[in-house]
Amino acid sequence: MYKVSSQQKQYNTFTLSDGSSNSQIEVVPERGGIVTSWKINNQEVFYLDTERFAHPELSVRGGNPILFPLCGNLPNDTYSIDGKTHQIKQHGFARELPWQATSQSENGEASLTVELTSNGPTKAVYPFDFHLSFTYALRGNTLEIRQEYKNLSSTPMPFSAGFHPYFLCSDKNQIAVDIPATRYEDNRTKESFDFDGKFNFDQDEIDSVFGKLSSRSTSVTDHDRKLKIAIDYDDFYTYLVFWTVKGKDFYCLEPWSATRNSLNTKEYLTVLEPNASCHAVVKITANFF
């Protein structure tokens, strides 16, 4: 029923499959530890810009990129710790670095664990030693991502983390969005608005940040593709971001542990003591109807 295999393409690509539901995902550890594809009955769930993916110098636009050690961007890409200023790019570096595949299992699920450890280039922009371990587990139509964040430094380590999944969608006017919040902030204007479940997709870009979440689940129903995406997340996650660009066949619904600039504001920032670790879980369920 469950199977894990690998194939050398441009990158070594792992395929996790559940034969009973005809569901499979592809994971590319060395390209940011990312899930690039998820097919159910040969229908693709994720969007992927394959041209960008083929060029290692470009960030991936598609699949499910990992955000660490920050979500979003910082003013002038700058933050301060203990009076010292550092610079780091939007969404951090985890989505750009090679991860290592360390274990896999076909026992009760198809799963693959990928890991990332701090190194010279990461410490140049983020002065901490860390170890990340993510397990992708596929069962039926649900992808579960179990995460461990560990501080290997001798000082407390602040961070935020999240995911940036790109869902394939050709007609955004036929999607119904269920986000457990009544207001959002437009990241472009910094204005706050009431939310009635609808977006104006005639805009060139939508970048809406939702806080004060009233439940641990969110969903989008795509009536054109007859596909419902449900995302469940634990208490580690405090924000959801809905982002899309006009003329592109995707929308993103992103669970974040903290909002932009938290490395400076400290709002909802996670701080791990030396040798401490924390865990988080995100589940994405895709059902065609």
UniProtKB/TrEMBL annotation:
SUPFAM superfamilies assigned to the protein according to its UniProt record, in alphabetical order: Galactose mutarotase-like
Superkingdom of source: Bacteria
InterPro entries reported for this sequence: Aldose_1/G6P_1-epimerase, Gal_mutarotase_sf_dom, GH-type_carb-bd
Pfam families: Aldose_epim
Protein name listed in UniProt: Aldose epimerase
Origin species: Pseudanabaena mucicola FACHB-723
Source organism phylogeny: Bacteria, Bacillati, Cyanobacteriota, Cyanophyceae, Pseudanabaenales
